[in-house]
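Quick one, tokens below. Sequence please?
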């Protein structure tokens, strides 16, 4: 019957690397895909909890699969599961604990976007936030090279210090700012990876300057906020991993639309940027914004990479397959 490979978060972390993940994502986003291959996410809501499901059939890959996210915003907790199925046989090939995949694929996709959007030259990075997402985003972008300096802001001084200490010994210095505006001053690439507890935007459009690239990953639901409407108004180009969901299901874009900010004509998909269907920036002085809600193609690209490496290296744990695939022809 074969076997199913189970990968823990620790297994994923050991199998993962930024270069491989960014390359896998570049290939996935650059491959032709129909809308039917990646349908809109589904969200089931209960009393203070929700279950989100992202599904996809990967182009140019043997896998199809899903990611399930069980979350309790009140408890500030979430857990993730990713099953991978063989497209040819429909057999379940792998089960991955998705916590590590989620954080790593988000950062790797942001790094891909930054690589395509950022103006060539030394990168002076501002990081708003100091948690797991902020750390992984800086690691992902730093893997591209060219980082000249980094400034971090987080409300707690101890968190800023811990963030800076984690990157000690890197070829770039990490300075600590006492406000988000101070962190952004002088930066040409901004990584927004934190929301406030009361959902007040943590990044403001008044801080934008010509040539800046802003990565925003913190507002994925209607009730969440990370950047203000002025930032959306001032951006010359907005790139989204999921265009419809970013436009209609994120608090930032909903707030901008409510204030009369028009953005439809400057909003494109990351796939169009990767494939070359859209040229990206028209001039170095344009301001570019990348907004992410997360997408099945990201989860499945990174999960597939880790599953293939686990198979080759004998990593993880295997269990007997649950049952042979059912022949629907009988």
């Amino acid at each position: 019957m074969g076997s199913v490979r189970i990968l823990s978060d620790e297994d994923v972390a050991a199998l993962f690397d930024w270069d491989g993940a960014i390359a896998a994502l570049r290939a996935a986003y650059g491959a032709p895909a129909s809308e039917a291959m990646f349908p809109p996410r589904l969200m089931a809501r209960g009393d203070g909890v929700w279950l989100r499901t992202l599904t996809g059939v990967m182009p140019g890959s043997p896998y199809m699969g899903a990611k399930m996210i069980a979350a309790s915003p009140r408890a500030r907790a979430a857990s993730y599961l990713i099953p991978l199925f063989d497209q040819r046989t429909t057999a379940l090939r792998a089960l991955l604990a998705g916590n590590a995949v989620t954080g790593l694929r988000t950062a790797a996709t942001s790094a891909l976007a930054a690589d395509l959007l950022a103006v060539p030259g030394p990168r002076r990075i501002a990081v708003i936030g100091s948690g797991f997402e902020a750390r992984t985003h800086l690691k992902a972008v730093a893997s591209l090279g060219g980082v000249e300096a980094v400034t971090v802001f987080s409300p707690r001084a101890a968190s800023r210090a811990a963030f800076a200490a984690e990157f000690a010994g890197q070829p770039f210095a990490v300075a600590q700012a006492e406000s988000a505006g101070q962190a952004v001053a002088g930066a040409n690439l901004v990584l927004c990876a934190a929301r406030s507890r009361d959902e007040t935007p943590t990044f403001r459009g008044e801080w934008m300057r010509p040539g800046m690239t802003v990565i925003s990953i913190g507002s994925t639901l209607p009730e969440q906020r990370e950047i203000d409407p002025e930032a959306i108004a001032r951006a010359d180009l907005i790139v989204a991993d999921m265009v419809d969901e970013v436009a209609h299901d994120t608090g930032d874009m909903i707030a901008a639309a409510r204030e009369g900010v028009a953005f439809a004509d400057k909003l494109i998909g990351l796939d169009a940027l990767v494939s070359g269907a859209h040229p990206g920036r028209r001039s170095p002085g344009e301001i570019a914004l990348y907004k992410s809600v997360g997408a099945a193609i990201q989860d499945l690209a990174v999960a597939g990479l880790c599953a293939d490496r686990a198979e080759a290296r004998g990593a993880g744990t295997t269990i007997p397959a649950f049952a042979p695939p059912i022949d629907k022809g009988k």
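The first strand starts at residue 3 and ends at 7. The chain has two domains: 3-102+297-320, 105-291.
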